[in-house]
Amino acid sequence: MILNRRDLSIGLAISGLCWTGALAAAEPVPAVTSKIILKTTRAWDGTPIVYPQGTAEVTGIIVTLAPGAQTGWHAHPVPSFGMVLEGELEVELQDGRRLTLKAGDGLAEVFERAHNGRNTGTVPMKVLVFYAGVTEKALTQMLPAPPR
Fold first, then answer.
1. Could you read off the pLDDT of 39-85 as tens digits, one per residue?
2. β pairing state of 115-119 and 125-134
3. What is the 3-state secondary structure of 11-24?
4. Closest to 96 in 3D by CA, of 82, 116, 125
């Protein structure tokens, strides 16, 4: 039997599909995966997380800081939880403690405590933050910079 070019091309294509299917069957890819980025009972400074009383309201925000930019000193009267999506973030407390985060890092933010965030990287920093608040409370209170 002599195969012409067309028949040979079709045969190779079919065997390539079969081979690809066999590889896919040998190494299944899960349809759903999950990864815990944060599971804690305390904020990053060690204080216990306490939920406020009132009508629950969850708010999600993406905060973007340009390279070198700062949030300004502020506090949150409600618990908040975040994950850095892009770039690098340094969070500083009034007592001088600092926490440095990079893309993929999660944190339980401090609350009722003054802190300042700063982009220490060379690209815009984006952090996704969820606040576990109540309808009667603001999420953030801006504060004056502490004396140095």
1. 999 999 999 999 999 999 999 999 999 999 999 999 999 999 999 99
2. unpaired
3. HHHHHHHHHHHHHH
4. 116
